[in-house]
Design brief:
alpha/beta, TIM Barrel, eight-stranded parallel β-barrel, binds phosphoenolpyruvate, binds cobalt (II) ion
């Protein structure tokens, strides 16, 4: 393999990069970014890697979630609190249901770049460069602000650091809301056909928390400080390169703009620039695996990206779609098992289940998402493999972007509060309900197996 450097990706074909007309400004901006302090510390990155290594071996569970595209304008007190709150509440439900410690990773503090399927779009008869995330250009359908602007790189760095600072403060400060499920917004439950299960679960969870609190000293270690990590898609490579730093002690390179980054499904070409860039990082990394990834391609990716077959290095985030997962996932699991490849499997039940309504709203249905999730859990179980994490696009707000769930959001309701700049997210109630569903199903081992036709018999962790 040719020698790797933070800029060696420049020698490979690269996808999904904007072309900046203001090259001088771009170079000056990148130079400035290279001088700024990192947003995270190598010790934290290594700690996350050790937790992911345990999750891969069945000892922990990972909850990764947040916006599809973060926006500068959502860098506010309330929006950050809401995002953190839903992730923390979901994680409590999962800890309770799965009886495993949960590793929380936000799609936050840097999720500002989006891959797009076209270069241009037509809005009101005007042909415009497509919106590529706040890191690149503006969402407003205005020709001038759709032109990629290098100043946005610095703005992204600032917004990431402000968000990170506040998340750290909330976590360090104990973020009291977490301890009191009575503060949770649970009105939606009354409309659910599963309300008895949910109410029962919340009661037991509340009881357990109060019990822990009554033990006094245990509280701080069990509930007080929680771990929380940041992640985003490593897409805009000039930005990621500028945040890549040499660690003298280990003589390795870390991307210190986030604890972990993932390669998108559109940019995971074996010979491409993204795989080249990611191969040299010391961070734990994710790879999105969509329907077009063959088992052979997956193994080649693993050989390039994890040559030492380290635990914790790779998270495979499958996003195959509820229609295809039964057919596509087993060969991928079998290939990984045959190879003895050490990976953490994670299910993204969002990106393979996107549809467009007659009124042109991009949406996802709660039941489709849940179905992919159930099948994913079950297929892993039936193959003696451990599904160690879930990956959601979600928000703490009461948006109407995905249909279904206890609030029974219908297609005609979508326009009420459709707020995403990119893909549809689960709202607060839908996200919490998703966690309830996972927890309930695990507690009572109630994931149906008729569809697969094999009884869940094999133990976890035989990888
Ligand atoms: C995403 O996670 O927002 C995304 C674009 O996913 P994928 O690469 O899986 O399509
Ligand atoms: Co998305």
């Amino acid at each position: 393999m040719p020698i790797w450097s933070p800029s060696s990706w420049r020698n490979y074909p690269v996808k999904q990069q904007p072309s900046y007309p203001r090259q001088e400004l771009l170079q000056a901006t990148l130079a400035q970014l290279r001088d700024y302090p990192p947003l995270v510390y190598t010790g934290e990155v290594e700690y996350l890697k050790s937790l992911l290594a345990e999750a891969a071996q069945g000892k922990r569970f990972v909850l990764q979630g947040g916006d599809c595209a973060e926006r500068f304008r959502d860098c506010t007190n309330q929006a950050i609190i809401d995002k953190l709150k839903i992730l923390l509440q979901m994680s409590l439900v999962l800890i309770y249901g799965l009886r495993k410690p949960v590793v929380r990773i936000g799609r936050i503090a840097g999720q500002f770049a989006k891959p797009r399927s076209a270069e241009f779009e037509t809005i009101d008869g005007q042909i415009l460069p497509v919106y590529r995330g706040d890191l690149v250009n503006s969402f407003e359908p205005d020709l001038a602000t759709r032109i990629p602007d290098p100043r946005r790189l610095l703005q992204s760095y600032y917004h990431s650091s402000v968000t990170m600072n506040y998340v750290r403060a909330l976590i360090e400060g104990g973020f009291a809301d977490l301890h009191h499920p009575e503060h949770w917004n649970l009105e939606f439950i009354s409309a659910s056909e599963h309300r008895h299960d949910y109410v029962h679960l919340v009661e037991r969870l509340t009881d357990a928390i109060h019990f822990m609190e009554s033990l006094g000293g245990v509280r701080s270690s069990v509930l007080g400080k929680v771990n929380f990590f940041t992640s985003h898609e490593g897409l805009l490579l000039c930005y990621e390169e500028a945040l890549t730093r040499h660690d003298v002690e280990s003589d390795r390179y870390y991307n210190l703009g986030a604890h972990t980054l993932w390669i998108g499904d559109r940019t995971r070409a074996l010979e491409g620039a993204h795989v080249e860039y990611f191969r040299g990082l010391a961070n734990p990394i994710g790879i999105k695996i969509g329907p077009s990834c063959s088992p052979e391609e997956l193994l080649q990716l693993l050989r390039i990206l994890n040559p030492l077959n380290e635990w914790g290095r790779i998270t495979l985030i499958t996003r195959l779609g509820q229609e295809h997962i039964l057919r596509l996932l087993p060969p991928l699991i079998q290939a990984v098992q045959k190879q003895g490849a050490r990976v953490l499997w994670c299910c993204d039940p969002m990106h393979g289940n996107t549809t467009t309504t007659e009124n042109a709203f991009k949406t996802r249905n709660f039941e489709d998402i849940l179905r992919e999730l159930r099948l994913c859990f079950e297929l892993h179980r039936n193959h003696g493999s451990w599904l160690g994490g879930v990956h959601f696009e979600l928000t703490g707000e009461n948006v109407t972007e995905c249909t279904g769930g206890a609030q029974k959001i219908a297609e005609q309701d979508l326009s009420k509060n459709y707020d995403t700049y990119c893909d549809p997210r689960l709202n607060y109630a839908q996200s919490l309900e998703m966690a309830f569903q996972i927890a309930e199903a695990h507690r009572s081992a109630r994931f149906p197996s008729e569809e697969i036709g094999v009884q869940p018999a094999q133990p976890y962790g035989s990888l």
